[in-house]
Design goal:
This protein is an all-alpha fold. It has a single domain, classed as Cytochrome c oxidase-like, subunit I domain (Cytochrome C Oxidase, Chain A, Up-down Bundle). The chain contains 17 helices and no strands. α2 packs antiparallel against α3, α3 packs parallel to α5 and α15 packs antiparallel against α16. The protein starts with a helix and ends with a helix.
């Protein structure tokens, strides 16, 4: 145990990230089930309004800041040095510090539940001036701010470490245009983090100053401006959406190429589209502010439409990779296909609300809840499960059970769509988000009952996945080093890898070193 607490090995730190994020995922899932239990029927009194506010605030905060984004960074901690042939990350001690800041920051956010006034209850956006009020936003809100400051610093130092490793620690022959797409997506993610997270840290410090040191940054009664909070928060918040998805684009690319047994179609296009998405995402923050009347709606609407183009390039490339490939429908590939289907719906609804007239009607309704969950839940979360099934043999030397894996996929896919598809119709019927109950009008009782039933099916899918991990790990059936015939460098080392990743590096002469090595072995055997 002490060795894990004091380790600077990037693989152990990556594993600790994965375990921590999945723990936070479990907590967030429990909170989500409480939300759906409260909304299953109209005029429900299971949860009071303040408790409901705390639960949906912590659910959103945990999924965004403690699960989706850090899982991608944690997986990169494990994989990136392996994919580029490096023995470790550039700054191992900084890497360890980054993890512990993340873990302690996450616990600090959740500790608000143990305070007298309860946890943060102002939503994951914590809009000022609501978040400046002392009544109802006491110590729990302060812990939320401090915890997110800790996780922000963790993210910044960790991504700097990964970027330095990628640029300076590649193996001989591993040129930038031979690194896997997952590693490229981490580079693009790193650019966004370095641009977007400092404004988040700044606005959180400003909020603390307003709350405790007599500042008036966001207090209109004293000359402050709450719209300034929205600008600073969303200048972080919309790039953050792509921090939540770009690593998962890389995961899907790795899975699709491996299970199609074809090189990535349009490799250069994939790389360029990642940086196009990153660049454009820095210019769309104010499309969250159309209804304020304080921004140029035509400009931000136009940039929001443009960002769909590089995202569409990725879909074309994934389809091109699968085209005429020898597709194997193993569990990771099923999650990749589920990702594409769900994310397509999320993308189309995103284009709709990029139009100001539609956004005026949909703003702060369940239509927005549906859109966001189809991108981050149906997208990133499905890619997360695909990554777990895909790299579990490499990380732990154990392959997960395929039958249980496919059962969990279908439960999650069906449950997800049953849960979130009705929410678009709720929004069209006028159901506001962030309300703890609703009247029995129109189709709202039926739609909410269906959504809550779907959430129960999703919960069953997660439980099957957990059972799969436990059963497979206890059985520990032997698994080859490359069970999927992957193309990238990590599949040419043992499972799990040795302390410094490789006993000997093979020659790297293309973007597909593992397949090159297989062909060389076949030629030698002949």
């Amino acid at each position: 145990m002490i060795t894990w607490l004091t380790t600077t090995n990037h693989k152990k730190i990556g594993i600790m990230y994965i375990v921590a994020t999945m723990t936070f995922f479990g907590i967030s899932g429990i909170l989500a089930m409480l939300i759906r239990a409260q909304l299953a029927v109209p005029n429900n009194t299971l949860l009071g309004p303040h408790m409901y506010d705390q639960i949906f605030t912590l659910h959103g905060t945990a999924m965004i800041f403690l699960v989706i984004a850090p899982f991608g960074i944690g997986l990169a901690n494990f994989l990136v040095p392996l994919q580029i042939g490096a023995p470790d990350v550039a700054f191992p001690r900084l890497n360890a510090a980054g993890f512990w800041l993340f873990a302690l920051g996450g616990l600090t956010v959740l500790m608000g539940l143990a305070t007298y006034g309860g946890a943060a209850a102002t939503g994951w956006t914590a809009y000022a001036p609501l978040s400046e009020l002392s009544q109802g936003t006491g110590a729990g809100q302060d812990l939320w701010i401090i915890g997110l400051l800790m996780t922000s610093i963790s993210t910044i130092v960790t991504i700097i470490n990964l970027l330095v490793t990628i640029f300076l620690f590649r193996a001989p022959g591993m040129t930038m245009f031979r690194i896997p797409i997952f590693t490229w997506e981490i580079v693009a993610t790193g650019v966004l983090i370095l641009m977007a997270f400092p404004p988040l840290a700044a606005v959180l410090f400003m909020l603390l100053i307003d709350r405790h040191l007599g500042g008036h940054f966001f207090d209109p009664a004293m000359g402050g401006n709450p719209i300034l909070y929205q600008h600073l928060f969303w200048f972080f918040g919309h790039p953050e959406v792509y921090v939540l998805i770009l690593p998962y684009f890389g995961i899907i690319t790795e899975i699709v190429a491996t299970f199609s047994q074809k090189p990535v179609f349009g490799y250069v296009g994939m790389v360029i589209s990642a940086f196009a998405i990153a660049g454009l995402s820095l210019g769309v923050w104010a499309h969250h502010m159309f209804t304020t009347g304080a921004v140029s709606n035509p400009f931000f609407s136009g940039i929001s439409f443009l960002i769909a183009i590089p995202t569409g390039v990725k879909f074309v490339n994934w389809i091109g990779t699968m085209w005429k490939g020898s597709i194997l429908l193993e569990t990771p590939m099923l999650f990749a296909i589920g990702f594409m289907l769900n994310f397509l719906i999320g993308g189309i609804t995103g284009i709709l609300i990029a139009s100001p007239p539609i956004d005026y009607a949909a703003h702060d309704t369940y239509f927005i809840v549906q859109h966001f969950h189809y991108t981050i839940g149906g997208g990133s979360m499905f890619a997360l499960f695909g990554a777990l099934f895909f790299w579990f043999p490499k990380i732990f030397g154990v392959r997960l059970n395929e039958t249980l894996g496919k059962i969990s996929f279908f439960l999650l896919f069906i449950g997800f769509n049953v849960t979130f598809l009705p929410m678009g119709f709720m929004g069209l019927e006028g159901m506001a988000r962030r309300v703890y109950t609703y009247p029995a009008i129109a189709h709202l009782p039926l739609l909410n009952a269906i959504a809550s039933a779907g959430a129960a099916v999703m919960c069953a899918g997660v439980l099957v996945s957990l059972a799969n991990v436990a059963v497979s790990y206890l059985k520990r059936a032997p698994v080859p080093d490359d069970p999927w015939r992957g193309y990238s460098l990590e599949w040419l080392t043992s499972s799990p890898p040795p302390e410094f990743n490789f006993h000997a590096l093979p020659p790297i002469r293309s973007k597909n070193p593992a397949w090159d090595f297989d062909r060389a072995q076949d030629a030698a055997a002949l």
